[in-house]
Amino acid sequence: MTMAQLTWKCIETCGACCRLDPEERVEAIEALDNAQINQYQELVGEDGWCVNYNKHSRKCMIYENRPYFCKVSNLRDIFKLKENEADLFAIECCRDHIKSIYGSTSSEIDRFELTIRIPKTKQNKTANSSST
After folding, report:
1. How large is the C-alpha radius of gyration of the chain?
2. 3-state DSSP assignment of residue 80
3. How far is CA 2 from CA 5, 16, 126, in A?
4. How would residue 25 be classed by pLDDT, with cut points 50, 70 and 90?
5. How many structural domains comprise the chain?
6. What is the mean pLDDT of residues 50-60?
7. DSSP class of residue 19?
8. In terms of C-beta density within 10 A (0-12 exposed, 13-18 middle, 19 or more buried), how is residue 90 classed?
């Protein structure tokens, strides 16, 4: 399977994107405007995790109302990417961040690697069958 055939998809109960320590997310902060930087900094807890991340359930407590920069669908705009670059950019960001937090042999990276290899049509069928 080539990189072009991979499709970004979030894996539940990972939470790597909620690790906001500014020293670990320099490139992300540099892509934000001043208002977004201020909002980002307000979300960083003393331990480097987002204050809205529930470490027990490993879920965002404000997911439906999370900030603009927390939505992967907005990475294209934030990082000034071409439309065909967004999925692969998100995949590389997630890979790097998951590995830096959980390790390159973690269950999180294994689940992510499996998930991004499922074609979109199968992902949609799986999501629809599990919600019925």
Report:
1. 15
2. coil
3. 5, 24, 22
4. very high
5. 1
6. 97
7. B
8. buried
Measured in whole angstroms, the distance separating CA 6 from the mean position of its chain's CA atoms is 15
Percent of the chain at pLDDT > 70 equals: 86
| 69 contacts 40 by C-beta, under 8 angstroms | yes
**Tokens 């359930």 identify what position?**
57
Count CB-CB contacts under 10 A for residue 69: 20
> Residues 36, 82, 25, 68: is their CA dihedral positive or negative?
positive
- Angle between helices 86-102 and 107-115 in degrees, nearest 10: 160
Q: Which domain holds residue 78?
A: 3-130
- CB neighbours of residue 131 within 10 Å: 6
H helices of the chain, where?
A: 26-30, 34-43, 75-78, 86-102, 107-115, 120-130
What is the structure's pLDDT at 84? 87
108/74 Cα distance (integer angstroms): 23
Token pair for 86: 């967004």
